[in-house]
Amino acid sequence: MASSNKLKAGGEFPAIEATLLDGSTVTLGKPQGDASWQAVFVYRGKHCPLCTRYLNALEGFKQAFSEAGVEILAVSADSKPQLETHLTQLNISFPIAYGLSEAQMKTLGLYISLPRSEQETDHKFAEPGLFVVNEHGKLHVVDISNNPFVRPELGALANGLNWTRDPNNNYPIRGTSDD
């Protein structure tokens, strides 16, 4: 049985870079805009119709995430040509990166799958994952799945992050007890 490296809530988010379409690199978990937090959505790739629907739905919550001070970034193991093709099916304005390596997927503790056929895709890919990184570089929210059918409901996630970010609620990082 293969060992698994799951990230700990409250722990440092690893320094992982991916590439944007313009060729620039982006560091996962480091907001580029006005937000102080970042939600990193790992998706399976262009071959996954559920990912396409989820990313398009996420666009509809971009403003709610922004109001909560949380920037959105999506990333997959797809190649640049695969992302370029996928963008024809996406109607999004948030950054999307490509080129996540198998080593990076393992560092993030993601479940990794083999393609069912060459028609599906030509590489191993990560199953869905969500990492919300706070202003201190700490993992505030982690949600990973071993299949495309289980992902956070976006409205509840946006509302929860808004509530969590409200200083009046003094809401700590959950799931940090090792007892």
From TrEMBL:
- Name of one Pfam family that matches: AhpC-TSA
**Protein name per its UniProtKB record:** Redoxin family protein
Report which superkingdom the organism of origin falls in: Bacteria
- Known InterPro entries for this protein? AhpC/TSA (IPR000866), Thioredoxin-like_sf (IPR036249), Thioredoxin_domain (IPR013766)
Domain named Thioredoxin: residues: 7-163
Species of origin reads Shewanella eurypsychrophilus
Q: Which SUPFAM superfamilies does the entry link to?
A: Thioredoxin-like
